[in-house]
Amino acid sequence: MLRKLTLFLSLVLLNTSLHAQLDINYSYEGNADSVKLNFAKTEFSKYLKVAIFNSRIVQNVFNIKLIKEGATQNGSFSYTINSNGRLVNMICVGEDEAAIGHAMYTILESVGFQFDITGVVVPTVFKTAIFKSDTQSITPFTRWRGIRQHVNFPMDISSYPLAEAKEYLNNLVRMRFNKIAIHSYPNLWHEVNFEDSVDYAGNFFYGRQHDIPNMQIFTNHIRFNDKIFSIPEIEKSYANTPVKSKMAVAWMRSLIEYAQSIGLRVQVSIEPRSKGDIPLITRTVKSVINNYPSIDELELITEEMGGWGNATTKAQVNKIAVAQFGESILQDTTVTNVIKNSQPDLDVLFFQLGRNITALKLLEKDQEIISRSIKLNLGIYCVINDYAKVAFYIAKKYLPNNSVAIMPGHGSKRVANYLPNLIPIKSQIAPTTIYSWIEFDGLMFTQQNANEGIYDLMKHLKASNGAQQQSTILFNHWRTAENRTSARYAALNTLYGPIPQLDFYKQYAEKLQINNVAPYVQAMQLLEKIDWIATNDLPNIGFCWVGAWREGGPYTWINSKALKNVQGLYSQVNYNLKKAMYNVGSTSGSNYLTFLLNRSEASKLYLDAFEKGIQVQNIKQDSVGKFSSAQQLSASVICNDALTIFNKYLQKHVELMPDRGCEGTLINFWHAPIYGLKVIRYKYAGIPIDADPVIDNRKDAPPLPIYFKKN
């Protein structure tokens, strides 16, 4: 024992001695702002020490020069390393402070660190040979790359304590993302001030309060909250609408200001929709700027459209088009060819698009916006390809100098499929902001993998743009830990250009020391396949908006054959992940595979419960709309069996809860698919719903994801 203690103390003294000897010095050139570089410097020093103290190297003096230079405005960065004995000279160059930070993180990646959306993977062996001599120069494939946060569901950062939400942003910066867009639905994150009233913010989760059941599976695994799942700092004021509104804005303002302090460009996006007049839109924008005075960009985007609105005649659409764009619009065949005798949503799209364009033209002259240098953007969220195409055409025609963003489909694969037809003029692609997906909220309770669609998009952009840099690509996602793989893939693709999935999976396995590579790759490829099939053939099966389950949800229409197909694929994923778990050389690799397997097994349980639940489709009412006693008994057995499997899902889910989003998924599962199944049981079997009823007190609601399965 004494010998072990002596050895331990010797190691402590050695480590202390090394700490004392290490000397890291920073200097600046080119008006680099040392304050804006504080986060990157602190990070770099911390991880540099980890690498040095775990490696046998002679170098112990690091002189790091941070240079801000470059006028191309493309976010390029570089580093150069050389050494002389114990001295290491590092020069990190970037066009702005964020780019300088990217050079520093690139050095750390070259040393062996891996930065994921879930945190930092520390290697077991460090490649410190680069401290002798190394150089890299990178012009990013995409100038602005990052995340589009809808912040509207319990599993995204809109339920996080502020400190954990900030750590989420830290991870984005470490991944060398440089932009985040915050989408504020009506009454969610921005107030609107009138002369005698306030349209309050704080309408979390579309006004669907997520009470926490007094059950151990929830109370044992949901941190911070007592009764209502929400941002912990806000829970005690949840019933006080004015106070909750102020606290919501203050929370988001703190997050935005922090994001900017660590190197992220911040955009706030709002949907004026069809409410009120143009002055209301401009008033709303001014209120948003009052709430968030430091933002870099503001976007007016159409609300989500996918063909679920009321049908309108050609004459009605023509009337709205003329009102918004003038009589000449009816002479433009690119526009008129899309207008049919009857169609849904096109009238609303033209109306909102025209109003947003008019409002932006007025706002461009606003002195406050000019003085704050806030960039104004136009967004189009339309998943009907022909509509999106004509909307983009109109936007470029009537607002040629503004940035236009397009979200043309649900899921990464649809975005990639639709984009080539949507923007036929290649020169217009590079300046466009493209919204894609790391995950699709219609499949929230199952494990996804969006990489195929991400790659297809990048491949198309490279072929179309040539050497020209893509302006902006932002990705939608809600859960964090579940999307670790696709988030890193998205980060690397937007930085370097298209990386074949197979190459990425092999590199990822190598970093995590997953030595049984083939089954890991097979599992990821199967998840890609599931992602596309489930998006098309299992509509809304995992939509997390509580309102989608108010009348029972998709149990009455999900196709049994499609369901069994995806169940079988998840079984294959599970088999391959178990094989991949043999001979893993790192704890981080084992933890990664264990979590991925857990969520894939949970996905299989979710579909197993649905397989049981959809059997109610075989129970038909009689001619007067009644069920017999035997039918009611059969329905109750079906629903109870499905609920039993859902309970297994919950038990599987809580085995691993690495972040707050997992808690949000847990509570949302209770209020969405479980509640919906109890509604079905009540309708078919007459068994009272033992959960609290869903009160329809929303101020806003999302449309259901599109049902179209083609393309």
- CATH top level label of the largest domain: Alpha Beta
Q: Write out the strand line-up for the largest beta sheet, numbering strands in chain order.
A: 8-9-12-13-16-17-18-19
Q: Gap between N and C termini, in Å?
A: 69 Å
Amount of beta strand: 5-15%
CATH superfamily of the largest domain: Glycosidases
Oligomer: single chain
Please give the structural blueprint:
Layout (H helix, E strand, L loop, with lengths): L1 H20 L1 E7 L8 H16 L7 E8 L8 E8 L2 E8 L2 H15 L2 E3 L2 E3 L11 E6 L3 E8 L12 H13 L4 E6 L7 E2 L4 E2 L16 H4 L21 H21 L3 E6 L7 H14 L5 E5 L9 E3 H12 L7 H4 L5 E3 L1 H18 L3 H6 L2 E7 L3 H14 L4 E5 L4 H11 L10 E5 L13 H15 L4 E7 L7 H13 L4 H12 L4 H21 L22 H21 L6 H27 L15 H25 L6 H26 L26
Parallel strand pairs: 1-2, 2-4, 8-9, 8-19, 9-12, 12-13, 13-16, 16-17, 17-18, 18-19
Antiparallel strand pairs: 3-4, 3-7, 5-6, 10-11, 14-15
Description of the structure:
This protein is of the alpha/beta class. The protein folds into three domains: 2-138, Chitobiase, domain 2 (2-Layer Sandwich); 144-307 and 348-501, TIM Barrel; 533-685. It has 21 helices and 19 strands. The protein has helices spanning 2-21, 38-53, 97-111, 162-174, 216-219, 241-261, 278-291, 314-325, 333-336, 346-363, 367-372, 385-398, 412-422, 451-465, 484-496, 501-512, 517-537, 560-580, 587-613, 629-653, 660-685, and strands at residues 23-29, 61-68, 77-84, 87-94, 114-116, 119-121, 133-138, 142-149, 179-184, 192-193, 198-199, 265-270, 297-301, 311-313, 342-344, 375-381, 403-407, 433-437, 470-476. Strand 1, helix 2 and strand 2 form a beta-alpha-beta unit. Helix 13 runs parallel beside helix 14 (451-465) and helix 19 packs antiparallel against helix 20 (629-653). The protein starts with a helix and ends in a 26-residue tail after the last helix.
